[in-house]
Every structure is written in C-alpha cells, then in structure tokens.
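Shipment paperwork, digital attachment
Item: protein structure file
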Amino acid sequence: MATRKRLKVIFDTNWYISASINANSRRKFYNLLKNDKIEVIYSQELMSEYQEVMKRKFSKKITKKQVLRFISWIIPILVEVIIKTWVRVSRDKKDNFLLSMSIDSNADYLVTGDDDLLVLKQIGNTKIVNMTEFLKVLDFF
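Attachment content:
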C-alpha cells in the first residue's frame, strides 16, 4: 500500500498568536500541528513576525519567556523553509514573505484570515484559504 502524501501547509502568524493567548485555541492548533495528514512549514521570518507582534501587542499579558517557550514547544513539529524567492504581490507588503514561503516550500495551502492574502486565492501551486475552508479539505484528505 502506497503512503499518502502529506499536505504542506503554512499557517499565517495570526494562528500562532491566537494559540499563544488562548488555551482553547492552543489545544486546537497543537492538534492541527500534530495531524499526520499535514506537514506544517515555517520560516525564520514567520517566527520573527510572531515575536514582534507578541511584544508589541501582548507584552503586558505574555512575557518574552512565555513566547520563547511556546516557540520551543512548536518548532520540533514544524518544517523550516529558507526563503529565497521574494514576491511583491500582496496589497500589504508585510504579507509578501508568506507568499514567498509558499513558493519556496511548494506548499499546498496557506491558511490565513487576512483579506489581503485571501483575495489572491492562489500563488504558484499554493491555494490561499481561511481556516474553515482548510478544515473541510483536511476532512476529505
């Protein structure tokens, strides 16, 4: 019996942030990260953005130590991609690194809630979807 290919998936930074600040979101996200149907892709740029947003918006609630502990908790589950291709197609230039990650990792899906990315629908071979759409795909995969 042939082994089924795992879906390569990039989760936008907002999913990491939500998991950091909400225990229920953390459980759900961790279960997704551990799902054997998917291979979750990250980059240093994604982790840097996550840390910057956590510092800027949540430093009164979440300490730097907690942020680093969360990263050390999830990194062993993730697969790193080094960004080599730089695209400039998003309406929000801060999102372009996610599109570049999508191309360089040949991801199947970029999961986001960001309208600036969702409007694109696809970049290269990567479909850009919201979490609800992705969960439907995952159910049928």
